[in-house]
C-alpha cells in the first residue's frame, strides 16, 4: 500500500482541536510514570528527566518534581522474562508507595518498540497484577510518525521507500527473541497473549471517529472497557492522539483506570510537551574542545548497517571494528577490548573522531539456541560497554547507535543516574545531558535508535558536529 493513503483522511481544524485539547488537559493532574524498555522512549520529548535506576528515592524524586512526567529506563528489552517480571513488580510497588507518600494519582506507561518488539504482554500484565488488577483496560498505541510507524484499519505498518509494509512482514517481526506474525493489532494481542485476549474482545478506536471528533463516542468506548481488555488505537498523526487524550481524560475523570503500551509519540501528547527546534551544534558541544568525537554502533538491523556505511564516507571518521565474534574465546575477547581502549584513547587525545562498531553479521549458533545467542549478545554488549567505561580521555561528543547499546553505554559506561532530555539532534533521535556525577558531567549524549532515521542521518549528525 502506498503511503499516499495517509493523505486521504480529512484534516483537522487545528485551532479547534488545540482548544479542546488544552481545555481537557486542565483537569488531568495524574503523575505520568513512563517505564522505558530502552532509552529511545524520549524521542519526542524535552525538558523531562530520565532516571536510570528505580531506587525508592529516585521514584519519590520523580513524584515530588514539578514536572508531570518522568521516565525510568529499565532497559528490559535486554532482560530475560524472569528478570523483566521481577523488575516491573519492584518498580510498581515503589510507584504505589511514592504515590501514597505524595497523595498523587498516577498512570503508568510501558513504552515499547514502535515495531512491536519487546516483553509484551508480560510487562503490563505484571504491572496489572502488582496493582491488584485495578486497571480496566490497556491502550495499545505503537504509532510513531518519525519512524514511519502508522496504525490504520487496526493494522500496524512500517513505511519503507514510500510503501506501507504490514509490520508482520518486516525484518522486525522476525526478531529472534521477540518475533511475531500478526500485523492486525487485535490478532497481535491474541498471538502474544496465547489466546488469553481475543481479537473480537478488543476495542478499536478508529481513525474515522478520531478525525470526526466523535469524542463522546470514544469516551463511551473507553468507559465500557473492563477486565483489562485491550484497546487498539489507530493513529497516523500526533493530532489523532490529542483527540484520544481528550476522551481518555474524560474516562479517567469518570473513574476508569488504564495501563498503556505505547511508542514514543503518546508520551509527548499526554505529557503536553511543546514542540522544539532541533538542537544546534552550539547546544551539543562544549566550546573550545579539541578532542575527537566518539560514535558507538551496536545495533544489527539493516538500517543501522546502511547508516554506518554512509558514515564511513566521511574521511575524518576512523573506523574501528570491534571483533565481537571473539566472545566465544574469553582470552582473545579480553585482548580485543584492551586494544580498542588504547586506540580510542589515542584518537580522542589527537582530535581524531572514531566509530567503533560490532561485526555486522550476528553470531548464529543454529536452531534452538536463541537463549544462548541472547546470553552472548549481552556479553558482547558488556565488552563494548567496558571499552567505553575504561577510557581515560574525554571525547567532544558521544553518539551511541542502537537501543540496548545506548542504554548500556549511558547507564554503565557513563554512570548516568538522572539525565535531562535536551531535545533531538534529528527527528526521533534524542539527546541526554549527563548529570554532575557521571563519567563526563554535563555532556550531550546522542541516543540513536537502531531502527530509526534516514540512511544518511548518522552521517548528517556527525558532519554537523565537526
Automatic annotation (TrEMBL):
The lineage of its organism: Bacteria, Bacillati, Bacillota, Bacilli, Bacillales. This is Hydroxyacid dehydrogenase. Keywords: ATP-binding, Carbohydrate metabolism, Kinase, Nucleotide-binding, Transferase. It holds the Pfam family SBD_N. GO terms for molecular function: ATP binding; kinase activity. InterPro entries: 4-carb_acid_sugar_kinase_N, 4-carb_acid_sugar_kinase_N_sf, NBD_C, NBD_C_sf. Belongs to the four-carbon acid sugar kinase family. Residues 32-268 form the Four-carbon acid sugar kinase N-terminal domain.
Amino acid at each position: 500500500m502506498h503511503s499516499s493513503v495517509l493523505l486521504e483522511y480529512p484534516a483537522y481544524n487545528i485551532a479547534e482541536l488545540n482548544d479542546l485539547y488544552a481545555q481537557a488537559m486542565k483537569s488531568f493532574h495524574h503523575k505520568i510514570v513512563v517505564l522505558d524498555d530502552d532509552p529511545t522512549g524520549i524521542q519526542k520529548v524535552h525538558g523531562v528527566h530520565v532516571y536510570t535506576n528505580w531506587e525508592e528515592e529516585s521514584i519519590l524524586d520523580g513524584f515530588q518534581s514539578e514536572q508531570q512526567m518522568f521516565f525510568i529506563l529499565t532497559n528490559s528489552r535486554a532482560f530475560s522474562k524472569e528478570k523483566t517480571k521481577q523488575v516491573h513488580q519492584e518498580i510498581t510497588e515503589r510507584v504505589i508507595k511514592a504515590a501514597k507518600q505524595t497523595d498523587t494519582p498516577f498512570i503508568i506507561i510501558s513504552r515499547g518498540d514502535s515495531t512491536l518488539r519487546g516483553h509484551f504482554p508480560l510487562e503490563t500484565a505484571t504491572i496489572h497484577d502488582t496493582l491488584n488488577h485495578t486497571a480496566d483496560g490497556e491502550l495499545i498505541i505503537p504509532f510513531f510518525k518519525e519512524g514511519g510507524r502508522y496504525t490504520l484499519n487496526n493494522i500496524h505498518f512500517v513505511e519503507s521507500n514510500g510503501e506501507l509494509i504490514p509490520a508482520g512482514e518486516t525484518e522486525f517481526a522476525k526478531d529472534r527473541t521477540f518475533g511475531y506474525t500478526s500485523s492486525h493489532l487485535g490478532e497481535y494481542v491474541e498471538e502474544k497473549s496465547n489466546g488469553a485476549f481475543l481479537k473480537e474482545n478488543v476495542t478499536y478506536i478508529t481513525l474515522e471517529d478520531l478525525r470526526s471528533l466523535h469524542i463522546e463516542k470514544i469516551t463511551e468506548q473507553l468507559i465500557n472497557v473492563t477486565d483489562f481488555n485491550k484497546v487498539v488505537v489507530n493513529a497516523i498523526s500526533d493530532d489523532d492522539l490529542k483527540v484520544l487524550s481528550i476522551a481518555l481524560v474524560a474516562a479517567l475523570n469518570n473513574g476508569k483506570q488504564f495501563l498503556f503500551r505505547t511508542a514514543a509519540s503518546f508520551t509527548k501528547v499526554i505529557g503536553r510537551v511543546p514542540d522544539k527546534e532541533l538542537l544546534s551544534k552550539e547546544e551539543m558541544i562544549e566550546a573550545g574542545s579539541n578532542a575527537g568525537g566518539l560514535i558507538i554502533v551496536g545495533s544489527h538491523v539493516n538500517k543501522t548497517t546502511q547508516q554506518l556505511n554512509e558514515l564511513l564516507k566521511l574521511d575524518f571518521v576512523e573506523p574501528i571494528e570491534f571483533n565481537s565474534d571473539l566472545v566465544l574465546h574469553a582470552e582473545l575477547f579480553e585482548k580485543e577490548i584492551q586494544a580498542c581502549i588504547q586506540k580510542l584513547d589515542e584518537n580522542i587525545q589527537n582530535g581524531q573522531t572514531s566509530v567503533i562498531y560490532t561485526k555486522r553479521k550476528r553470531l548464529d549458533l543454529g536452531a534452538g539456541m536463541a537463549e544462548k545467542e541472547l546470553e552472548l549478545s549481552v556479553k558482547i554488549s558488556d565488552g563494548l560497554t567496558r571499552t567505553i567505561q575504561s577510557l581515560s580521555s574525554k571525547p567532544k561528543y558521544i553518539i551511541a547507535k542502537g537501543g540496548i547499546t545506548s542504554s548500556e553505554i549511558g547507564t554503565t559506561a557513563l554512570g548516568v543516574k538522572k539525565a535531562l532530555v535536551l531535545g533531538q539532534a534529528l527527528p526521533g533521535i534524542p539527546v541526554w545531558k549527563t548529570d554532575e556525577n557521571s563519567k563526563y558531567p554535563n555532556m550531550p549524549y546522542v541516543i540513536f535508535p537502531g531502527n530509526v532515521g534516514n540512511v544518511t542521518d548518522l552521517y548528517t549528525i556527525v558532519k554537523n558536529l565537526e
